[in-house]
Records
---
Amino acid sequence: MSNPSNLKYTASHEWVKTEADGTISVGITQHAQELLGDMVFVEAPQAGRKLQAKEECAVVESVKAAADVYAPVSGEVIAANGELDGAPEQINNAPYDAWIFKMKPDNVADVAALLDAAAYQAVVESEAH
Amino acid sequence: MTTLKTTPLNAAHRALGAKMVDFGGWDMPVNYGSQIEEHHQVRNDCGMFDVCHMRVVDAKGDGVRAFLRYLLANNADKLTVPGKALYSAMLRPDGGVIDDLIIYFMTEQWFRIVVNAGTADKDIAWMKEQAAVHAPQLTITSRDDLAMVAIQGPNARAKVWQVLPQTKAATEGLVNFQAADCGEYFVARTGYTGEDGFEVMLPKEKVEAFWYALNKAGVKPIGLGARDTLRLEAGMNLYGHDMDETVGPLESGMAWTVDLKSERDFIGKAALLANPPSTKLVGLLLLDRGVLRDHQKVHSAHGTGEITSGTFSPTLEKSIALARVPKGVALGDTVQVAVRDKMLAAKVVKYPFARNGKGLV
């Protein structure tokens, strides 16, 4: 599966989608879910929480391991994806649809400055060596 | 960089799409896709595991039973029917667990021993050192010429008979924990999943063909990921996690394997008698949402303990763990487990958590 070109990415394997209203959805990438394996638990941040870029804010746990999810940019959490509580495997099945939380970024330019699909792919490939 | 050790099935794993990981220095398959699907596959049908990294050791000669009676915490005298197997700890003089292993009584001149991969070299060195003193007439041989495959699940035996029809007559009468020597194939009704099945030992050069023949018969390969969730649900210890040289068997849920009743002396016995345990191994079932993991602290009214193996149970769809806790902790107690920045409630339960396809908790 290739990484969608309409999304932005972080080196810590989050994807970021800018919605029509300027808010962003955040999930973990295909590469990240593949490394972790079968997902069994997601702990998302609560709406209203203020986050700094790169702050640990969510946890995804597979059978094998727990992994932190980091805020891609600074901003405020506006929603958590409650559907993942009962169906964390959505992250395995459709990682780019299974958003974990939504944020209102403090600064839209921060989002534009994240990695594009090609730059993220380069990160993934460099980690494989 | 060290080179990982490989089993004779390494190429087969890659051909079958395995994700490979470094498992204690061995390049082993962690899964072939979904670890949870593999887990259910074994509970509901059957699957096969590459356990070639484990070591087969043959102890042969006059007096081999007497030697094992002294070497091991469980009593080799419990084995009276040929082929019968016994699970035991092998202890240091101070009571620490060198390894847990299975011995098979074949004849009064031959016992077969299967030990863990990571401990095999030290185990064999210890056995030889003890034999040199107590039974120098014995030969202790690491069977590096043998491979081992575990086929586990309710349909496992039928699949093995389909692939190895020549072994059926000798193995269909085996009871649980009994093996038959069928020439090139040594077939044991043992395993590490809590399901029925066989562990088959065979010449290394035949194992790849055997693996593919099983696969063709519909037996799916299962990775070490599911092996761990299956064994933990089945309440079976993992050496290096649930016990090691720094703890005794009585603190490790292995009291049922330690024979302190008979007059027999064995290595570690005096230390066990002199040091009654202050901790014990219990099962935990997480009541809150989350996943229990190794080394998380367990807080109880009787003091603090630690999780030795924690995971998500695919059968129960809840998180389970084995934990070493103060002796006063009782079944039914609620304890608090420190998970990251939270305290999560867990119930102390009797284990195994699941066996023979069913959850027990």
---
Amino acid sequence: MINFTINGQNVTALKGETILQAARKAGFYIPTMCYLEKTTPCASCRLCVVETDKTDGLILSCQTPPTEGLAVTIESDRLKAERTNIMRLYDVNHPLECGVCDKSGACDLQNKTLEFGVSAQHFSAKDQHRKIEHWGLINYDPSLCILCEKCVHVCNEIIGDDAIELQFGGYKSSVIPKNSETLDCTFCGECIAVCPVGALVSSQFQYSANAWELTKIPATCAHCSAGCSLMYEVRHTSNSLGAKEKIYRVTNDFEHTTLCGAGRFGFDFAIEGSKDEAEFAKVLEAIKNADGLRFSSLITNEEAMILQLLKEKLGLKLYNEEARTYQNFMNAFSSISGKSGFGGSIDALRQSDGIIVIGGRVSSDNPVLRYAMTTAARHNGAKVVYMHPMEDDLLQNVVTQFVKYEVGTEEGVVAMLAKTLLSGSDLSDENQRYFDNLDEGYLCAESNVGDEELARIAKTFVRTKRKTLVIGSDVLTHKRAANIARLCAMIETYSEFSVVVVPTSINTVGVSLICDLDVDNGGGNVIGYNAAGDYTMGSLSDTMFKLPALNQQEGTFVSLNYQVLPTNVAVSFEGYTLNEIASSLGVVAENTIDYTAKLPKEKGFNGMEFDELGNFFSTLGEDNRGYLLENCDVEANGVLDEIDDLPEFNGTVVYRCNPINQFNSYTAQAQQLEKEAVLSGSAQFAAAAKISDGDKIRLEFPQSTQERIFKLDSTLKGTIALVPTYDVGFGGLNEQYRFEKVKIMRVGSES
Amino acid sequence: MHHEEVFTDRNVNESSAYYYVDIENYPTTGWDKFKQVVKRTFSGELFVGLWVVMREMIKFDIHTVQYPMEKLPIGPRYRAVHKLLRLWESGYERCIGCGLCEKICISDCIRMDTRIDENSRKEVTEYSINLGRCIFCGYCAEVCPELAIVHGQRYENASEQRAHFVIKDDMLTPLDMLKAGQQAEYPGFGAIIPGSDESVKKTPLAY
């Protein structure tokens, strides 16, 4: 704690805090243009200058920590003059196009220009022609750019794309794509979010609505398990009477959260419905006659609760293989750790200085985890070990050690990793014997993970303090998932590592907590709720009975952080809801959200009403969204199994992995997202499978076949190809082990 | 078009153009009131008026305005149904779609839709005003930075229902009218104040 004064008032700062942070916490206002809480200070605007008693010149409060007893002045005539001059310089030749600019009304430059009363241009510079750049989803107008560098910092430090940089040239400076003619990035759109002026804008949104006309609806992103906070911004669609509202854009609280491209651009998945009583009678009849109900995890907790109550009332079986595998994994995990959930979180990951990721392609499965890892690497110099059969090009700037293992050998790899990380820990004799008796020679040979690689990991993590182990979703569906879970739990329980398990869908965790799921063997008369079935209902385009999509419902999700997050209705829905169906079947409630308070307390829900849940960040970044589930104590009676023989995957192997910004059937409908559903593989894969770029191929899976185009991807290496799942059926990713042996044939050439 | 205000001094005193009208005091007692009635009834003033009508009738000098075929000119600042103007030189629409009129409208009767056009400019695709709600306050014309929306002279608003709309096509000056020089500028709320040229500051430019 450092005690100092601001304008004569006593203020305390924590160690590592800057003057600006301490001042803001204490409620003082220091103007800034380029400051962004989540990045290192850009220090380009110099508006945050302050005077102190120990320096002659002005100092930048955004990057200077206070010293004990320092007297800081944040308001004086000199500072006012300095800041006003900065604003005058910002306004030199700034195009007077506020009338059409998208940012008008929400523009930092507008606000500060008015705040400092700059009503005329005091300086001159020769104006020049600056071309507007069109970068796909993003447009960049250099003449509006004030060169604050927020976008560059975010792209580099938080996202990790490192796709833009500043081209220095005095008054000619501008933001340009890095090492490329045009912008080549994952299109997260975070640069649009942080831009304080209208220089970087969404090309789709540009000029379609003004900031003040849009109603902001705080919600939770429905695409991956991270459950990011976002704001749906809605407005009427046309001037006609009775015109419906639609979502114009998605924004986020960029000071404190980060959103990926799917969240930002994949918002147009709302559907239309109508109240048709004949259809309603049909769905009731279908449910009464059904043996089971299959559903996806694209569902709110309240609806999951309704399904569970329907199960109890009607004796339906509930099928959701994806959530069931997660449930089994966590049950096995808890049986060792003695806690109902794992101990890690995305925030903990962001603050880590040592990270191991195993069994998942996080950059496409869960972009926010990738962003957290990037932040950890850039801000804490975190060591990142990535263990997977396939290298990930997007993580190459972050990963310090890549460990490749053979497909299917996760159990052996985790066992050896556990042994490495737990050496020297206080284990029981039984567990110690278990690790001593591991047949490392066999495991190393089969998994292709060398002793020296494990030794390097051991060496790396001796020096780190805050460690996180990220378990990808490959292992959830592994045949030996239970034992892998127990081994992971050993690591969390007996070492300093905290574990994060990455489920696939937005509410996999919620469903696994609320529903009592049955084993799906495909038989019987099954209702599908956003899933395959004899009678289907839901919000996806090919369902028979329409129910609202996730941006048309209110309810809660449980994110991978075990946080219960509220979401709200962005677009109205005229048809029936699941609650109305259930009410007609005897599970009666007036509103779906009546179930929020009734979510099972024994699983950690705290019984709060939906309307009591917050959904915002405070100005200082405190997370006021929903609440955290209680991590309950459970019986720890699990025993580690012997490692099974490691399976071999020979021949042509594909990996179910969606392209960046694609997750499920919702994102598949999004008009702005790229929808190239191809099999992508390396040149090595192409040679082995005897196919070439652009070939139309048929993939024969054990259960099904698909026809796709093959695309050569120069960023991939090795002999495994990526096959998307978001465009198939209901887009389920994690119902079976993600690697699979397939037969590949060129269509038209086989005979 | 130049308007000079006659009544520059609105203070009522001897030197201004205002003067007091000499009005007799009202009768207070019953008798006085009776006397006034008798005086007015038998003074024959009625016939004075009738004679004027008769005289003009005989002379065929009729001043009746033949509404609706004929309309009286109304004051230039009168705020009737809106018009959207075009630029004189190019014929482009003046409206840039900034949305300020929509924002400022206190009866919330203006709605517009914009998009980005082929030339990367903001284009107004729809513009409507619900005249049933409009209170003709003139804020929209006042806030308009481009003198694009103005109040015209068309004051007839009779309609079959309360809500009735004017849309962009109704309000925008047709191109042939513009070419014929028939677009009228609006001197009312929001128009350039006479003499504003003098108050414009030049941007200091070093070249």
---
Amino acid sequence: MSELTLTVMRLGFLAVLWLFVIVAVQVIRSDLFGTRVTQRGARREAQRPQAAARQQSAPPQQRGQRGQRAQQSGGGRQRRNAPSKLVVTEGTLAGTTVALQGQTITLGRAHDSTIVLDDDYASSRHARIYPDRDGQWIVEDLGSTNGTYLDRSRLTTPTPVPLGGAIRIGKTVIELRK
Amino acid sequence: MSSTTNTPTHHTSTIGSIGAPSRRNTELALLIFAVAIPVFAYANVGLALNDQVPAGLLGYGLGLGLLAGVAHLAVRKFAPYADPLLLPLATLLNGLGLVAIWRLDQSKRLQAMHAAGDKATNQLIYTALGIALFVVVLIFLKDHRTLQRYTYISMVVALFLLLLPLVPGLGADVYGAKIWIQIGSFTIQPGEFAKIVLAVFFAGYLMVKRDALALASRRFMGLYLPRGRDLGPILVVWFISILILVFETDLGTSLLFFGMFVIMLYVATERTSWIVFGLLMSAAGAVGVASFEPHVQTRVQAWLDPMGEFKASRSGIQDGIIHSEQAMQALWAFGSGGTLGTGWGQGHSELIGFAANSDFILATYGEELGLAGIMAILLIYGLVAERGVRTALAARDPFGKLLAIGLSGAFALQVFVVAGGVMGLIPLTGMTMPFLAYGGSSVIANWALIGILIRISDTARRPAPTPAANPDAEMTQIVRPGTTGPDPQ
């Protein structure tokens, strides 16, 4: 076998071996699943120029569609102001949002809570937030040690949560937002 | 948490879960690649040595491909969400091992020493047995948590396996290390299997005891000092590993078991002090034993002064000590390989003599593939360990976490101990490079290890079932139909 062929094979083999390693690392990169973190601020800014351009090009159609969509999601006048998500604004979980889809949200240190609070002042089953018949969101203290506060007042009974009202549990503050 | 925590009012981030794709097709593509590389290498060896494509190329390629295919189908059927990389990486290492063993089989010098000749065929049979055990693990181990039931049985089995080579008439003393047992014409290295069984025991034990080990401690000079009675288990494992070192004169096995325990202890308790203790204890133990055990002394001497040992061996000094020339020869092999290597089949690593295709097989790669090839191979080992750790991170149950970290830690530690020994970083030990080196026990046990890791990763990556409807909400609707809101109770 000629020297040249063997040299080409030698370098070719090393190249192929490294190609395998690189492909494997690429697979690892594409394999990073589990949680997707969407930056809301960044997304909004990126979408704004697009939306503006779209409105300019086809204003009537676009507006019609948007009206329809608002009605679909709101389901009528009464729920126009219904919150669509719960946002943790202070505490170790600050920045977390949970979409409100009619399910009960439990808060506490227990591992099966919807929002697991890593907060020394929270009880294991501290409070829950749930919608009543009309879609109004209610916060209820579940007999916690240190209490749940809506704005400044400590909760004693299940209380409706206004949009943007601050629910305070220990060092964690939660708000409902549109 | 994302980086947006400092300005939560303007930058909120949403954390939503994405379902894990099954990735079986990715695995298949990588697997084809992983079989093609050794086939290329095999053809290359034949062309370099005999100027022709070796006659066995088709059979060899088909054999490896068939085994990989069977393993892939088993994963597809029994562990559909498993990690896509573990199987191709292990297959590639095993295939490269077969090529290097076959290449050393061609050496007239090794054939004359009866150290080579038909080893590649044997290794292919061992690989088949290993893949068979891999498939058996996938079929019968439906859930890795069943292993948790056998925590203390595992301990007994592991001790039994470790002590087996010491049984008179059964244990075989091969070149000073007593880590083999001989049944008929077969030699088995029970330590390789003990590694897996012991990981099961440690995982089960530490899962129960970790709170006591982690929390009951005093702080002293920045370190958490465990209570005296909590030191018990680490002392017992340390003592056993010292016993292995003394009676089986095998530094590698003892280091592997103690290291695995310290890694798992650290992961279970998150206490850095265990690592400090572990390092101090293993250093003290190794130095203590090396002071009176001649076999260990020889190894240390060969590590500190390989050239002196080589000269002593060549000059034939009869001072009652076996001088090892291999440590120096391995270093020469690496040196003559250089950066890009000599090319497959064009090195002279067969000069190392016996154990060229087992303990010292890394020197063959070092010479024929050079630094570039060795780095790639070590990276592939690193990726296997990384996938193991990733599996441990993703696992939902503490037992699975600890077992995955223990198995991948043992795998990585074994690679470190062997590669470090051959390259002269630490004293040489009698262990085999997983998948690359010739040896049935090692290949079979490591395929079982990969099987368990794949089982854990399948459980960890399987998408969670959709949660059942909240019974509370339904009950309130039925019990109080008249009220406007759900019952606060």
---
Amino acid sequence: MQCGNCSVVCSLAPENKPFPRKEMIWAGWGMKDKLIGNPDVWLCHQCGDCSTYCPRGVKPADILSAVREVSYQHYAKPKFLGKILSSPKWLPAAILIPVIIISAILYLAGTLQIPEGPVNYSKFFPHAWLNSSFTILWFLTIGLGVLGLRNFWNDMKKQNPELKITGSFFKNLFSNFKEIMQHSNFSKCSNQKSRKIAHVLVFYGFILLLIVTAFAIYAAVTHQYPLGLFNPFKVLGNVAAVMLFIGLTVMIIKRVTDKENYGNSSYADWLFLISMFLLTISGVIVETARFLNWSIAYHLYFFHLICVWFIIIYLPYTKFGHLLYRAVAMTFDKSVNRDYSKKNED
Amino acid sequence: MNKTQKPVLVIGGGISGVTTAVEIAEVGKEVILIEKEPYLGGNVVKFNNYFPKLCPPTCGLEINFRRIKQNPRINYFTSTEVLEIAGEKGNFKAKLKTAPQYIKNNCTACGKCAKVCPEERPNDFNYGFTKTKAAYLPHEMAFPYKYVIDDEFCKKEACNKCAEVCEYDAINLSAKEEIKELEVSSVVVATGWKNYDASKIDNLNYSSSKNIITNVEFERFIASNGVGENKLLRLSDNTEPKKIAFVQCAGSRDENHLPYCSAVCCSASLKHALTIQELYPKSEIKIFYIDLRVSGRNEDFLAKVQTNKNIELVKGKVGKITETENNNLILEAEDILSGKKIKYEAELAVLATGIVPSNINIKLNKDSNQFMTDAQTEGIIPVACSRKPMDVSTSLKDATGAALKAIQ
């Protein structure tokens, strides 16, 4: 931590106060507040260059990743949700919560039994119940996430009192939009090209599915649901599933086979990756089961719903939370003109 | 002591091997000194100057060569390698291979052979940056002072021009390699070092730019008998660079390359910086370092450098070098003291690559970094840089110790 090689080989580190050397020093000194209220740990896209080129075998990439993981729990609202996702010993509880929620909704809807006749999922989970509970949960999650983000934002301000915030939050947030959409930061990571492709597939796959879901809710309200196999939105949904499947498969394979470059993946990382993978697979199987009238279709559907609920309600507390925290950290940097700090000095 | 005692074999004719041999011979023992190059002097003879007094290498080596010449107890063989060592202390059998001696010892170094020689070869004395004829004198102060023919580039009897022109009948183009078997009492391994292969440090782009050179290459760039002949030139455009950067720990203290400190590179770069300042007082020099590890007498260099306004010491390891369109180099480091990234544009970058022990094809006990350990078969004595990185004066003290061990 006295040579600064890591900060130099990093393609994303800014000119002024680059990371990750300063984070390594804070970590060594146990300065948790500085680490957690620090936008830079989120600017890192985990390319692993710093670990690869470190002359002393220190693994800055792993440290930054660990700080991000601690951040999910630190800012978790309510706290217990962060906690049950922090360790495998709480996994049964973490699975039980969506199971109970779904069962309760089905009980209230009066459909907690396997329907007779050809497969029609709305007989099992009526559209009105499904769509309203899904929408409510989605916004509840975002709301809880925002509470955590607000604390994160205040911590960043507190830890960097010398920086002046300019411009409105939303304007700065949207100025990052292009960067996120193009994955331009990812392109700067020279170490692993496959990571960008995999992330693009998963990122856009997920966004497509959200759009398709929103349309499906609209279609259900206007009684056009389920969509036919060749409905453009149905096709789009299937394309998204394939994108997710390919992207996630690459991510999983790379993590297992290329430990050298990918570092050691954490529990939170695996939890998100595997739940997304199960979501994708079960989604495709459930769709197939409907068309082929499989007898276990409803059981599969129930499993698929658990996956959906698991991912949505735990969004701010697993690796999925990077979507929120990274966007906010990038916005903070824009707000304090960090990108331009060097120009100002020159 | 027993007068019929067998000679000591010293493998390696660099400054440590030469010193060991001379010291053994001067206490009355027989020595056989072998060297794989066609001349004695090893790495030191290629230097521009060396510690601690910044003498040119002629200074220390010349007197040793005279001691060798005058002492009948030293037998030396150049262009010779060891193939095999067997036996035990007091009774080793050594198998040696001498490359074909196309030019015999009665060569007067008149140079006529080189004049008529039609073939060229890269001059390894200048790390291939210049060329010589296939019949060549290794360098001005080569010892033995005689011409050599490069096997790889010479067309031998098919050409025969040099043999025709030689007035002393010193050329024999049909010479064959020779295998000798000797009985020796002990073996001193003075195989020394080479510098670390800088092309392995991919982020420093050594292979992709002519203007990134290593510290040992720099010695030949700055030496008056070297690449630029009294000028420091950079090769991309043959201009004299005025902004020069030194990259310390290029491969050393790095688990991806050499985990150890090579001990001499900091002092060497300080020496280089002062040499450039003498030649070009207006030049601007930056030395990027992790820690400046100069000890003992060499600390005086640091004191001198610190008072020189044109030499800046920057605490920060260079992590990236990129070449610009005009063949300048952008060096990137984090300035540890200010916490800011630096991008410095230099016209020439010198990588302070570390010391790696030279290979030897006989079986010896080595540590994890391929340096020889002290725990060898009794009677086999590693010395100087074959044991660990050290500077010339430390090596010479080590050589005296090895000489004493070898005659016990």
